Amino acid sequence: MEKLSEAEVKDRLTHHPEWTEVGGEIQRTFDFADFKASMRFVNDVADEAERVQHHPDILIRYSRVTLTVSTHDAGGITVKDFDLAAFADNAAGSIAGATA
Questions:
Q1: From the CB of residue 73, how many other CB atoms can be counted at a distance below 10 Å?
Q2: Do the domain assignments include residue 82?
Q3: Strand (E) positions, 1-100?
Q4: What distance in Å separates the CA atoms of residue 31 and residue 5, rounded to the nearest whole number?
Q5: What are the tens digits of pLDDT across the range 15-42?
Q6: What are phi and psi of 3, to 5 degrees?
Q7: What is the secondary structure of 21-34 as a DSSP string?
Q8: What 3-state DSSP class applies to 80?
Q9: Which H/E stretch holds residue 14?
Q10: Strand, coil or helix: 97
Q11: pTM for the structure as a whole
Q12: Labelling 42: which of 28, 35, 65, 73 has CA 20 to 30 A away?
């Protein structure tokens, strides 16, 4: 998988406005109604990450979950990262009480 250029990353971020580029990775914080909802989300993301063998860094703070994603073997952000971001956005939307 090839690393995206800065321009390509910026363009893709326009389609994922809740995500930001931070130090060569993309990141988003999700807010949920409670801890159980945040853990449902984390489990959904973990299942997908295992399926595609692409694992994000996950920070859980009660009802807030921050995902940070990059493709380490490519040395930066790739299409794989945006695919996982899209999955996470959809997964969050399907959990009751989720907000951006």
A1: 8
A2: yes
A3: 20-22, 25-31, 57-61, 64-69
A4: 30
A5: 999 999 999 999 999 999 999 999 999 9
A6: -65, 140
A7: EETTEEEEEEE-SS
A8: helix
A9: helix 6-14
A10: coil
A11: 0.92
A12: 73
